[in-house]
Amino acid sequence: MELVHVRLAAEDLVGDGRVVVPHARTGLDDVLEVGDDLVVTDQDGEFHGATVIAVGGDGHDPHYNLRIGARLPIDLAAERMTDTDVRPEKAGLHDVVDLLGELRGVLGHPGS
């Protein structure tokens, strides 16, 4: 899973739960695709789960529409960024955190 930094405060990032990020600002070599999951950091140093929900722009510098999920404690963010599978005993916790982020987005409530 990739790590992307956005130039927004945590409060702004979770406000409506969506953000657009140009590929050039991601620091990534490979282009992302719809459905890719990410860990996003904000300028306050908080970690958030995120999913690419649309890819737009021209062929030279695509931009990504991200749905921002729940804030992640550093240990969960680190687990998501490793190339290994999440330990079975933690899989349920990751699922609950993701569901809380989705619920916040559906209900339109900031924060998590």
- CATH homology superfamily name: Hypothetical PUA domain-like, domain 1
| CATH fold descriptor | Ribosomal Protein L25, Chain P
- How many distinct folded domains? 1
Largest sheet: 5 strands, mixed
Task: Walk me through the structure.
With 112 residues, the chain is an alpha+beta fold. The protein has three helices and five strands. It has a single domain (2-107), classed as Ribosomal Protein L25, Chain P, CATH 2.40.240.20. It is 29% helix and 30% strand. It is globular. Strands 1-3-4-5-2 form a five-stranded mixed β-sheet.
In a nutshell, what does this entry contain?
This protein is of the alpha+beta class.
Secondary structure layout:
Blueprint: E1 2-5, H1 10-13, E2 18-22, E3 37-41, E4 47-56, E5 63-72, H2 74-81, H3 88-107
Key attributes of the depicted protein:
alpha+beta; Ribosomal Protein L25, Chain P; single chain; 112 residues; 5 strands; 5-stranded mixed beta sheet; 3 helices
